[in-house]
Design goal:
- By secondary structure, the protein is α/β, with parallel strands linked by helices.
- The chain is built from twelve helices and six strands.
- The protein has a four-stranded mixed sheet, with no helix packed on it.
- Helix 8 packs antiparallel against helix 10.
- The two termini are about 25 Å apart.
- The relative contact order is 0.12.
């Protein structure tokens, strides 16, 4: 939370600010900011749970491990000391974190909001786990690990492969792939500088086949059919469905009446 506050004026959170103080600073800023004035408020806390809220981390360079996590008591104290303006109300406290649907948490913040919303299950699978759960995800992941060094070495040492890599916009597509992997809803463009992704892959793959090991050439041919299925504006989520994505974990959400 402190990392977000440092870039938000007029908060200017000091580096040694505890998570509780950071939350209080944020609440005070919202409640006193004219642009945020409203009759009803909802506080959504995103993180990893329950370890962030219940267990102290190893520590930080300042030697103050308590400054790195938020305890249920800290949340209660922050909500008690920072309340909405007159005639305004905090309706909901929600936890966008795994395993936070606990009676103990609801008890700590009773009377400070009308409802608590949380889940006792995994909120969202990490993107890598989602990818590996697809029909072909594990195969592509293993192939990437297996041949990464060989392909990188060819790009660095073989001029023809290096030329094909750059002319096919390999570095740009790599950056876009990383962006899509970190943001599953990011829409990958069909073309870069007028060069379609299918043609980019075909150019590089054709050159790679000329110099790759026989084993790599065989595995490239196994993967080629999926390239033709790519189309403009696909997100990482859609690409995973294309690979036969398995259903994500079903989320059970609980609602606690805190009044």
């Amino acid at each position: 939370m402190r990392s977000h506050l440092r870039g938000a004026e007029p908060l200017n959170a000091p580096p040694d600010m505890s998570e509780k103080d950071a939350l209080k600073s944020f609440l005070n800023w919202v409640y006193t900011n004219e642009k945020c004035q409203n009759e009803h408020y909802a506080l959504i806390l995103w993180s990893h749970g329950p370890e962030l809220f219940l267990q102290p981390p190893p520590g930080n360079p300042t030697g103050d491990p308590a400054s790195l996590y938020l305890k249920p008591q800290d949340l209660r104290e922050a909500l008690t000391s920072c309340k909405p303006p007159a005639n305004c109300h905090l309706d909901i406290v929600g936890f966008d974190a795994c395993s936070m649907s606990m009676f103990e948490m609801a008890y700590e913040i009773r009377g400070l909001a009308d409802y608590m919303v949380a889940s006792q299950e995994e909120i969202r699978q990490p993107i890598l786990q989602q990818f590996l759960s697809t029909q072909f995800g594990s195969t592509y992941y293993e192939l990437g690990q297996k041949y990464f060094r060989e392909i990188l070495n060819l790009i660095n040492t073989n001029k023809r492969v290096a030329t094909a890599w750059h002319r096919s916009k390999g570095p740009v597509w790599t950056r876009l792939a990383l962006t899509a992997f970190n943001n599953p809803e990011f829409k990958v463009p069909l073309a870069v500088s007028g060069l379609p992704i299918n043609e980019s892959v075909e150019r590089f793959v054709n050159m790679l086949k000329k110099f790759a090991s026989p084993e790599l050439r065989t595995d490239i041919e196994r993967c080629e059919p999926h390239v033709s299925l790519l189309h403009e504006g696909m997100t990482m989520t859609e690409m995973m469905h294309m690979l036969g994505n398995q259903p994500l974990i079903r989320k059970e959400v609980s609602y606690y009446d805190l009044r």
